[in-house]
Amino acid sequence: MRILALSFILLSGILGFTSCGEAPVFTKSYSFANNEWKQDVKPVFKVTIPDTVNYYNIAITLRTTTDYSYSNLWFFLHTKTPKGQTGREPVEIKIAHPDGSWVGEKSGTVVETKVMFNHRKFPQAGVYTFTFEQGITEQIAKEVMDISYTVTKDISNEN
Hints:
The chain has 159 residues and is mainly β. Helix content is 12%, strand content 50%. It has one helix and eleven strands, in the order αβββββββββββ. Strands 1-11-4-8-7 form a five-stranded antiparallel sheet, covered by helices on one side. A four-stranded antiparallel sheet has the order 3-9-5-6, with no helix packed on it. A two-stranded antiparallel sheet has the order 2-10. The longest helix is centred in the first third of the chain and has 19 residues, at 2-20.
């Protein structure tokens, strides 16, 4: 079942990006065992940014089941630049509106919610390391299937 879900994610991502015409600079997903994001599980994504001239769009996609008990999920995004500088930023993903309706796209029992950071420049070229740390008060965020990190070149304002 997990292989089928992963195949669906990969196929959806490939179809979505090829239809836009611009291949992603980076795209990768991390699946959580038993749909549980434990506090000691910290997905890591290493992204090679080729330049400091172009703008990029960043998408963080979280997939939960419809049994997820909360309206949001907090996590910390740790960033390490190619020169070794580090930063830590809290990020909230709103999953449900106050009325209980889903913020993201629902398909069957899966809810896909996306946070976008558009038109961003990276200060250095090279390999960035992005580490995601679950940031809720519970030891385990239940019903969290996976998290994805995608970087695409922002072609809306080409240099």
